[in-house]
Amino acid sequence: LPPQHNADPQKTAFLLRKQWTLYSVTPLYGFSNADLKHYARLLSAFTAAEKQKGLAVEVGVELDIKVTVSNVPDLKGSDRDQDAILVQLSLRSSASQKNSEDKLVWLGCFCCVFGDHLSENLPEDFTCLPLFLANGAEGYTSIVGSWFQKTFDCCFRRLAISPLNLSWMAAMWTGCQVDKTTSAMELVFSAPCLPYPLDISYAIHPEDAKALWDTVQKTPGEITQEEVDIFMDCLYSHFHRHFKIHLSATRLMKVSTAIASAHCDGIIKFLQSKYLAGVLMLLTELAISQIQ
Amino acid sequence: MDETVAEYIRRTVLKIPRDEIKMMLQKWGFLSEAQLETINFHQIKDNISQDVVQLCEENSADIKQAAVLDIIYNNIYPNKRIWSVYQMNKTGEETEFFDLTDFKKKFKRLLRSALKNVTITFKEYEDNAIWIRIAWGTPYTKPNQYKTSYVVYHSQTSYVFISASVLKSNLPLLCQALVVASNYQDIREMELRSHSLNSLKDIVFKRYSQNFQTYSPRPLTEKNVAPETVDLRIIQENRNEKERIQRLNREVFGDGPQPKIEFAQYKLETMFKSDPKMDVLDKKEPFRCLVKFSSPHLLESLKSLAPAGMADAPLSPLLTCIPQKARNYFKIREKKGVLPGSFVSP
């Protein structure tokens, strides 16, 4: 995995240990880093209007939603990447005083980590932030997404992660050096089309999984498709030896390691700040593939 | 009537599906037929339960009666809880005569001597099942009627089914009470858990159709099958293979319906073996894995894997042995020189 951009891990810590839903976003037209406060005001008004329409998430109590839009310069791969943009939605109950704490209810982050090749041939009016991460209620994601789509003529799509890509993540993340090996390397498979659906969780002790991967990977720092295939085949055949079941005929749904966990519906959880950039780089790549 | 009892009865009635309330109250027998006639069972459940509480007030219900209603509910809907299976042992062959009164007395005495505050309720059913409901308290607090454990004991057998739920710390005491009350020597937990109490009974009492090896030189003919309209343009590929798979499946799983369990777990501590050409891991230590299978009906799901092309037939004995071995939690170690077998570890 590539070395971390000179980032302050504190600034990106908000990404860790939360469940993020992933989207690919086409380039934003007419977006400017200088107008973030302005966007926050516009988005705030839009959100309030949506609430009046009855499309709001919360019902009953009169709630005041505060919107913050900021940039996160530490969240990028190279200097050619755009600064990441963070959108925060907080609730201020009208009864509370100015000094009381707002309750953070939704986070959205646009970023691009080593994804500058997408912007290579685009005019300057476009801002490339192909990866969007959302944490919080779906209703808010929908409102924020709608506003960005209308305002910057872009398109959000849920990022699906194929079994092929999940296998890559499994292999890559298994090879990472982790200080305390507490989490198993877990693969979750599903066979939904049977009369009674079947789910299989296959968890391997992280030391043993890493030992296997280390014998498969020939060049440190490089991973080939062939190596990923061999690694997965080894795991499948160990399973088959015991249970006579062909895991390759089922669908790989989720991969969990000490580094991160990823679900095929485009849901991710980052667990280690040391490898955050690496995982984001991979996800940026997936987002870019989905856009193109 | 105590407020807590009233509330408990109200909540218990609310759990029952509306169409079943009258039947359950009749089974309970605490309210008379005349009283039941006064309740409108077509109104919303909230109102039905209020009416029931009102009538219970008239009859001065106490916690003992309320507890019986709770047992009746759990007896009809046992699948809402998760059940573990325990087996009791004693040396000596004599099957002693089971004295229910003596059992109840000893059970209560042991629990009460350790914990002053417990509510213990018994109900016997026709199939020789004794249901015991225990609401746990502490030396300083009254029993919490919402923190309950249930025991189902078939006195003709050495098996006990326990749904302990929350207070696992009371489990050893509960086990001790059972052993003493039933005149056994000890009790051990089997590696068998499920939501389906009846399936657990099927498994331990061997009530499912077992897979006897039958040799059929000709395929078994089905009765009462409507003649298929044969479209000669459709050819069944691999018919022989499909029939072979069906036959092998029948041999390992048997013909009848499978007992219903929802999961099986295997802790694997076997060696990793691979094709030597692949030049991969060749450690002398076990490749440690934990495999969990889950499904709304696991055994039927596993049975459908080979016909669906997702598994070889016959399926591994590690999976097909679940009913015979009466367990769904396994620890598998390498057998020297042979394919992995199930070496049972305590």
TrEMBL record, chain A:
<protein>
    <recommendedName>
        <fullName>Centromere protein L</fullName>
    </recommendedName>
</protein>
<dbReference type="InterPro" id="IPR025204">
    <property type="entry name" value="CENP-L"/>
</dbReference>
<keyword id="KW-0539">Nucleus</keyword>
<dbReference type="GO" id="GO:0000775">
    <property type="term" value="C:chromosome, centromeric region"/>
</dbReference>
<comment type="similarity">
    <text>Belongs to the CENP-L/IML3 family.</text>
</comment>
<dbReference type="Pfam" id="PF13092">
    <property type="entry name" value="CENP-L"/>
</dbReference>
<dbReference type="GO" id="GO:0005634">
    <property type="term" value="C:nucleus"/>
</dbReference>
<keyword id="KW-0137">Centromere</keyword>
<keyword id="KW-0158">Chromosome</keyword>
From TrEMBL, chain B:
<dbReference type="GO" id="GO:0005654">
    <property type="term" value="C:nucleoplasm"/>
</dbReference>
<dbReference type="GO" id="GO:0007059">
    <property type="term" value="P:chromosome segregation"/>
</dbReference>
<keyword id="KW-0137">Centromere</keyword>
<dbReference type="InterPro" id="IPR052011">
    <property type="entry name" value="CENP-NAC/CAD_complex"/>
</dbReference>
<dbReference type="GO" id="GO:0000775">
    <property type="term" value="C:chromosome, centromeric region"/>
</dbReference>
<keyword id="KW-0539">Nucleus</keyword>
<protein>
    <submittedName>
        <fullName>CENPN protein</fullName>
    </submittedName>
</protein>
<dbReference type="Pfam" id="PF05238">
    <property type="entry name" value="CENP-N"/>
</dbReference>
<dbReference type="InterPro" id="IPR007902">
    <property type="entry name" value="Chl4/mis15/CENP-N"/>
</dbReference>
<comment type="similarity">
    <text>Belongs to the CENP-N/CHL4 family.</text>
</comment>
<keyword id="KW-0158">Chromosome</keyword>
<dbReference type="GO" id="GO:0034080">
    <property type="term" value="P:CENP-A containing chromatin assembly"/>
</dbReference>
